[in-house]
Amino acid sequence: MSESSPAHPTPASAPTSSGAPRAPQPLTYAVDKDVHILDRLAVVYRYKRIALSVFLLTALALMIQGYSGEQVFQAKAQVLIEDERSTAMPGIAAADYYQDPIPYYNTQYRILRGRDLARRVVKRIDLQNVAEFNGTAKPAETPVTKARDAGDRLLRFLARTPTPIAEVPKPDETADESALVSRFLGRVQVVPVAESKLVDVYFTSADPQFAATAANALADEYVASNLEVKMQGTQSMLDWLEKEVATQQSKVEQSERDLAEYRDRENAMSLDEKNNIVLSRLNALNDAVLRARTTRIEKESVNNQIKSLGTTPVDSIPAIAQNAQVQLHKAQLSELQRQKAQLSERYGEKHPDIINVNARLGDEQRQLDLETAKALQTVRNEYERAVLEERTFAANLEEAKKDVQDLGRKSVSYNVLEREARSNRTVYESLLQRENELRVSSNSRANNVRVVERAEVPAGPLTPTGRRTWLLSFAVGLVAAISVAYGLDYMNDTIKTPEDVTRMLKMTFLGLIPSVRGDKHPVLASSHAPHDFSEAFRSLRTSIASRYPGEGAKTMIVTSAQPLEGKTTTAANIAMALAYGGARVLLIDADMRRPGLHRSLRLTNDRGLSQILTGQARVRDVIQRTVDPNLLAITAGRTPANPSELLSSERMKTLITNLRHGPFDWIVIDTPPVLAVTDAVILAPMVAGVTFVIGAEMTRRRLAERALETILASHPKMVGVVLNKVDFARNKYYYSRYYGHQYKSYYARVG
Looking at the whole model, is its pTM more than 0.70? Predict the structure, then answer.
């Protein structure tokens, strides 16, 4: 394995102006999104044994079926099933058709596969005299027919056609007739044509001529049966409508007769809105009362002015002053006074002209007084007449109101009768219109079902023979094998390759460790460790070192999602690889619940981290040497009662801080699995990075995602993933593409 990972790291961040190194930035990876043929072959290769078994069994079974089955022929007729609205005549109200087309078409498919229709076809083609069907027992099904029926069921499922339900024979059927119908239906297939209103009707038989005859007979009988059902339904509706129209007509006549008799009996012609005389009279009298009251008020005002005159001249009242006779006599009186004034200038009082003028003035004054008195009397008379007129109209108005009230009482019963008559007439007219429309529609004999393509005699058998049988068997076997392989791969949602880490988990990939035969992974110090195993950790060491730039001790924890993924062995080997590279390394076992680091390094576990955190020992007392002088270790010690509380204590933070300033270049801490306990989440913010170990083809994607989400919730500075226990032989095609064809053999030749 090469020491560079299959990624393009970003440059490490430089130190800040204060000299402290910046937090290491996670590397970015350019994920290969191209789909290569090797990626597809890798899936088949991974399940090669199962795929090969499926291929051989399927191909062998199909070849046996092909050579042992009899030849059968299949004829196809095509029927067009349109919406029932297509037969509705323009201008005529449509019947209550199916609103949703799916139930309607599913119903038609079941009718095509129904026993009633099959019974008619059996009688039409005289099936009992056909040699293929006249046996009392059902013919044995061949492997070919079984396979074909399975394919038919698959086609019906894909076309969303329900599987026909076995129907119980009618009581009036004999056993032989029922058997013939069942045999006939066993040869019928109804397959809707996708995205259309066409339906293919298939019939299978050993006789090609009879297959075409049966298919055509089934299509013809279906068309005739559909029209017959429609005509029967229409005729039944017409018979019912005739009775209802006659009944409703008698109801209309009776209700209108009752209405007329009530109007005559109660003398209530005004109840009719067109002849409502009482209401018109009430409105006219109401207007007349208003006018009479207005006139009376005006006359009363003038009369009150006359009564209140006193010493005021009568002609000061406008009604008197504007009287024509009064104005005439006043004018003549003024003229005589003017003449007297002219004569008085020349003559004396004894002059005949003066005497004559005075006499005329007296007469004119008497005439003026007389006309004034007449005018005053006229005002009084008009006032009295206005009062009388108002009273008369008011009395008439009260009588009219009584008539209206009486009419209102009569209108209650009248309105009930009128509504009943109107409702009966509306129902009658609707029924009559519907009857006429149905008669016109039935005369048209329109059918929404018709045969589009009649069945022809099939030219060849349905099942292939000879070389075609071999080719079909190999093709079906190959498809089945590939389908099984991809199905198993789809159900296997474990993390398998580095591409799964970068593409699914969106995490930094540090490196991969190959699987080793045996129950446990070895450590680098052991003599029996394979060379490719050791070289993988050297490559991992280079990848980890590139992500922790700067001076000073680098701290990191090693954890996993669940047990048995090899995180303890990985932690020990990472520390050993760093020590072999010349760095001084301190390895700490923080898994105080199930410590295992001391077994991998063959150390004692009498005292360790738990004694340091409880104050029972000092650091220098528990540090142990290993096989490499650059690697020191602190085991977990005896299991305490509260491991999580000890790891989150200030003593643990102080310990990590002091160790950073110690003589070590690396501090590697082994922690428990994330999904088991929270120890790794507690320590993650205290260190510079987290190395997350995933067992290849062991850890499910959902578990890995949940564990990583738990770690990231503590805001670690850097998280990298190591893919452990990788089976290169199982994923040969994948690793030959990304890591070279001779990946494992290269390591075998080195050294």
Answer: no
**Cα 623 from Cα 632, distance rounded (Å):** 6
Mean pLDDT by groups of 10 residues along the chain of 751 residues: 37 38 40 54 74 84 68 89 67 53 88 90 88 57 49 46 46 78 90 91 90 92 87 80 86 83 66 59 80 82 70 65 73 79 80 81 80 76 83 80 67 74 86 78 73 89 63 82 79 80 86 74 58 84 86 89 89 91 92 87 88 89 89 91 90 90 91 89 92 89 89 90 83 56 44 34
Q: For 90-118, b where at least 16 C-beta lie within 10 A, e where not — what string?
A: eeeeebeeeeeeeeebeebbbbbbbbebb
For residues 58 and 189, membership in a common domain is answered with: no
Q: How many domains does the chain have?
A: 3
Closest CA to 695 of 512, 503, 506: 512
DSSP summary character for residue 618: -
Q: Are residues 591 and 740 in the same domain?
A: yes
Q: Looking at residue 494, what DSSP letter applies?
A: B
Residue labelled with tokens 């760093």? 578
User: What are the structure tokens assigned to 529, written together?
Assistant: 């460790």
Q: Count other Cβ atoms within 10 Å, centred on residue 306.
A: 16
Strand (E) positions, 13-88?
A: 73-81
The answer to the question of residue 304 being in a domain is no
Structure tokens at 583: 């760095």
CA distance 160 to 262: 65
Of the candidates 608, 670, 665, which has an alpha carbon nearest to the alpha carbon of residue 631?
665
Provide the pairing of β-strand 585-589 with 666-670: parallel
How many C-beta atoms surround the C-beta of residue 12 within 10 A?
15
Closest Cα partner for 580 from 547, 629, 540, 527? 629
Q: How far apart are alpha carbons 706 and 151 in whole angstroms? A: 43
Question: What's the domain range around 63?
Answer: 37-67+464-491
Say which CATH number the domain at 638 has: 3.40.50.300
Using CA atoms, how far residue 694 sits from 113, 264, 292, 495, in Å, is 57, 103, 110, 8
**From edge to edge, which strands make up the β-sheet containing 188-192?**
188-192, 198-205, 73-81, 449-453
* Pick from 689, 601, 613: nearest CA to 645: 613
Tell me the residue length of the chain.
751
Cβ atoms within 10 Å of 497's Cβ, excluding its own: 21
558 found inside a domain: yes
